[in-house]
Amino acid sequence: MATEQLHAVGRRKEAVCRVYITPGTGKWEINGGRTLGDYFPRPSLVTSIQQPFTVTDTIGGFDVKANLTGGGQAGQAGALRLAIARCLVKVNEDHKKKLREFGLLTRDARSVERKKPGQPGARKKFQFSKR
Length: 131
Prior knowledge:
By secondary structure, this protein is α+β, with helices and mostly antiparallel strands. Helices cover 33% and strands 21% of the residues.
């Protein structure tokens, strides 16, 4: 296959990302036509998403097509980063050690703690009155 397409899924908080990577010139297509900078206006999120490519020295070597659903901007960025890292491992198994070293293959399991009954939030308590 000349244009081999690789697929991976990434999750973070409530966000889910399906990524399709093909060898190319570094084009980004998110949710049907939007570019990376257009979809994620915060530069810190863009650098975070591109981290797997910079770590493995493959920036600009792949075309990325991503479908993002659920969550907010930070969660979707984390999901996209994980999915890209998983794809790069499928491309070349030698990338795994470097990506693992930077913690890019670990699924961030932190999510919002549930609200408990009798409290205004997850941890916050109503003001205590002794009398």
